[in-house]
Design brief:
membrane, transmembrane helix, TIGR02206 family membrane protein, mainly alpha, single chain, about 240 residues, transmembrane
C-alpha cells in the first residue's frame, strides 16, 4: 500500500499510450458505449437511474477528497500546484453540481468545456505517476467521470446542447482566463497553462510560443465545441 501512495514513485514517469494508458482509454469507450446502449433501461427505472447519477457523483467527488487527503498526509500541499484551478478541476466541481441539481446552465458548460478539456487530458495526460499509483487512478477516474457526466445528462435526463450553449461555454472559458490568470501571477503558478506550456507532450506543444498559443486555443476550443454539437444538428435525433 505504501508504494500505491508513494509520492516519489513518480520518478518512474508516465508513458503516453503505454499499455495502461491504452487500457483506460478503452475503458472510457466501453463505459460510454454501455451508457448509450442501456440508456432506455436506465431512463425507465428510477432506482437504476439514481444509482448511475449518484455513482457518477461519487466518481467525481471521492477521488478528489482522497487526493487532498494525500496532499496533506505527504506534505505536498502547495498553493502553486494543488489548488483546484485547472480547467478540468473546475469542470469537475461543476459536474458534481450539475448532476446533483440537474442544472441546464451547468450542463451547457460541462458538456462542451468538460468533455473538450477532459478528452484532451485523457489523450495527452500531464501526469507524472505511472500505473498502478494512486494518482494514476485518480487522474483517469475523475476525467472519465467528467466526460460521462454530461453524456448521462444527455442520454438519460434528455438534455440537448445547442448553439447558445457554445456561447455560454466560450464565455465561461474567457471568464476563467481573466480570473485564473492574475492568480497565476500572484501565486507564481501556471494553472490552466496560462503562463507556459506543460512539460509533458500535449496539444499545446504544437500551438506556437507564449502567448500566441492562448489565442490559438480559443479557435481550437470553438472548433471542438462545434464538433461536439454536430451529432445534435441532425433532424429527428432520438438519442
Amino acid at each position: 500500500m505504501r508504494s500505491f501512495f508513494d509520492p516519489n514513485i513518480g520518478s518512474a514517469g508516465f508513458a503516453a499510450f503505454s499499455a495502461s494508458h491504452v487500457a483506460v482509454l478503452a475503458i472510457l469507450l466501453l463505459l460510454g458505449a454501455l451508457l448509450y446502449r442501456c440508456r432506455a433501461a436506465i431512463r425507465g427505472r428510477a432506482p437504476l437511474r439514481a444509482a448511475v447519477r449518484f455513482g457518477l457523483i461519487a466518481a467525481l467527488a471521492v477521488p478528489e477528497a482522497a487526493l487532498f487527503r494525500w496532499y496533506a498526509a505527504e506534505g505536498l500541499w502547495d498553493a502553486r500546484y494543488t489548488l483546484p484551478l485547472e480547467l478540468c478541476s473546475i469542470t469537475q466541481l461543476l459536474a458534481i453540481a450539475m448532476l446533483a441539481a440537474r442544472s441546464r446552465l451547468l450542463y451547457a458548460i460541462v458538456y462542451f468545456a468538460g468533455i473538450g478539456g477532459a478528452l484532451q487530458a485523457m489523450l495527452t495526460p500531464d501526469l507524472a505517476y505511472p500505473f498502478p499509483h494512486f494518482r494514476f487512478f485518480h487522474f483517469f477516474v475523475v476525467h472519465m467521470a467528467i466526460i460521462l457526466a454530461p453524456l448521462y445528462m444527455t442520454w438519460i435526463e434528455g438534455f440537448r446542447p445547442n448553439w447558445k450553449d457554445i456561447g455560454v461555454a466560450m464565455l465561461f472559458l474567457n471568464v476563467l482566463v481573466v480570473t485564473v490568470g492574475p492568480l497565476d501571477y500572484w501565486l507564481d503558478a501556471n494553472y490552466m497553462f496560462l503562463r507556459r506550456k506543460p512539460e509533458a507532450a500535449s496539444l499545446l506543444s504544437v500551438l506556437g510560443p507564449y502567448p500566441y498559443y492562448l489565442i490559438v486555443e480559443e479557435a481550437i476550443a470553438l472548433a471542438i465545441f462545434v464538433l461536439l454539437l454536430l451529432p445534435f444538428l441532425r433532424r429527428g435525433d432520438k438519442s
